[in-house]
From TrEMBL, chains A, B:
<dbReference type="InterPro" id="IPR020590">
    <property type="entry name" value="Guanylate_kinase_CS"/>
</dbReference>
<dbReference type="Pfam" id="PF00625">
    <property type="entry name" value="Guanylate_kin"/>
</dbReference>
<feature type="domain" description="Guanylate kinase-like">
    <location>
        <begin position="5"/>
        <end position="184"/>
    </location>
</feature>
<keyword id="KW-0547">Nucleotide-binding</keyword>
<dbReference type="InterPro" id="IPR008145">
    <property type="entry name" value="GK/Ca_channel_bsu"/>
</dbReference>
<protein>
    <recommendedName>
        <fullName>Guanylate kinase</fullName>
        <ecNumber>2.7.4.8</ecNumber>
    </recommendedName>
</protein>
<keyword id="KW-0963">Cytoplasm</keyword>
<dbReference type="InterPro" id="IPR017665">
    <property type="entry name" value="Guanylate_kinase"/>
</dbReference>
<dbReference type="InterPro" id="IPR027417">
    <property type="entry name" value="P-loop_NTPase"/>
</dbReference>
<keyword id="KW-0808">Transferase</keyword>
<keyword id="KW-0067">ATP-binding</keyword>
<dbReference type="GO" id="GO:0004385">
    <property type="term" value="F:GMP kinase activity"/>
</dbReference>
<keyword id="KW-0418">Kinase</keyword>
<comment type="function">
    <text>Essential for recycling GMP and indirectly, cGMP.</text>
</comment>
<feature type="binding site">
    <location>
        <begin position="12"/>
        <end position="19"/>
    </location>
    <ligand>
        <name>ATP</name>
    </ligand>
</feature>
<comment type="similarity">
    <text>Belongs to the guanylate kinase family.</text>
</comment>
<dbReference type="InterPro" id="IPR008144">
    <property type="entry name" value="Guanylate_kin-like_dom"/>
</dbReference>
Amino acid sequence: MQEKGLLIVLSGPSGVGKGTVRKEIFSQPDLAFEYSISMTTRAPREGEVDGVDYFFKTREEFEKLIEEGKLLEYAEFVGNYYGTPVDYVQQTLDNGKDVFLEIEVQGARQVREKFPDGLFIFLVPPSLSELKNRIVTRGTETEDVINNRMSTARDEIEMMNLYDYVVENDQVERACERIKAIVVAEHCRRERVEPRYKKMLEVD
Amino acid sequence: MQEKGLLIVLSGPSGVGKGTVRKEIFSQPDLAFEYSISMTTRAPREGEVDGVDYFFKTREEFEKLIEEGKLLEYAEFVGNYYGTPVDYVQQTLDNGKDVFLEIEVQGARQVREKFPDGLFIFLVPPSLSELKNRIVTRGTETEDVINNRMSTARDEIEMMNLYDYVVENDQVERACERIKAIVVAEHCRRERVEPRYKKMLEVD
């Protein structure tokens, strides 16, 4: 009985540092999960390699993949498409390996619908953690700035709702450690482990 | 707003090595949780220190504590009482620190009733893991031995039902790493984190 891999989705508000955390995680040699490379129609930036940083596609190619249902999730930003090819994710999971996605919140919402028992991690911006630690020092900020912050914080907290875990990005290394711990822990969750044992007893 | 600590309960079938794993965890310097020392009426063994290994009590003292509701859980084994003093646990949790209990399965059941949102970890004996890995090599064991094993395994799997996590004790160090990861992850669970953020916004 081949055990399926875990779909790990890292997301969070834009500017939170998802990409930095993801790069740090994948720079570590002892990692037991696979990174799912995104697809985009934007032009490669200097140093970016096709099939490493992104799969670079034309608009026509991308729209054909959308039509064919080949994308697990996708979204358009500033005139460019970004998305996750579904085949790689499905094959890797079927082979019993964990897959790691780093995507925007809209994309995460789409993935949740298709993989309800994926592992959804919300990266919290330092600004929200700071707010939590009450560093919003009154008197040093205008009321507008404070109201703006509070409104952004409200939106960010609203977004959390979809996720299983919330990780503060106070320090990249610490955020990575927490994410790795979450993956280890999730593999030990009774709901995931117990059916294997039960099945094993039936079979034997 | 003082955040409450997490109650961590390590249990599992007798002989699984709960005590060894607990000792290994508490031999590590970077630990962020407190061990709740058990109380017993059995005589101290050589080298055991009152207030370190156990709180040693007379039968009369122990029964008085039971009557006064001062025990979070207790059980009698081979004519001796073993139990967990509730005051230490409650005070430590109220102070925002995590408390770690290593107790028998009957005790864990009692604790679950009083602390439903505690973190319950079931340590799985290597024999069950081995069964999972199909090391029950046919032909080398009598049918009685195999049936016996299967029956024990069934009982052990039955016990898992109460727990949040299942950790294989294949190697003490690995079991400890998993338990520590579970505690880190649990502190990041959205259900635990989100109310703090929500409350913070109301307050500010």
